[in-house]
Amino acid sequence: MRFVRGGNLIDLDWLVEATSQQMPLAMNYAEAQFALGKELWLCACRG
User: Fold this and answer.
1) Cβ distance 29 to 23 under 8 Å?
2) Domain residue limits, the chain
3) For the chain, which terminus, N or C, has the lower number of CB atoms within 10 Å?
């Protein structure tokens, strides 16, 4: 339990649910951009 030692605690199930309800992804727009050859780069890190 990392948060017990001073790390962060977040309920990822809640985060995904709340984000999808309040800020849905524009998948139609994304599909159109990918069809035009656009790329999507993501970076995730753990600090």
Assistant:
1) no
2) 2-35
3) C
Q: Tell me the H-state helices in 1-40.
A: 12-22, 27-35
DSSP structure class, residue 4: G
Q: Is the pTM of this model over 0.85?
A: no
Query: What secondary structure letter does DSSP report for 3?
Result: G
Question: Could you tell me if 30 and 40 are in contact, meaning their C-beta atoms sit under 8 angstroms apart?
Answer: yes
Q: Using alpha carbons only, how large is the chain's radius of gyration in Å?
A: 16
Q: How far apart are CA 3 and CA 9, in angstroms?
A: 5
| 27-46: pLDDT as tens digits | 999 999 999 999 989 888 77
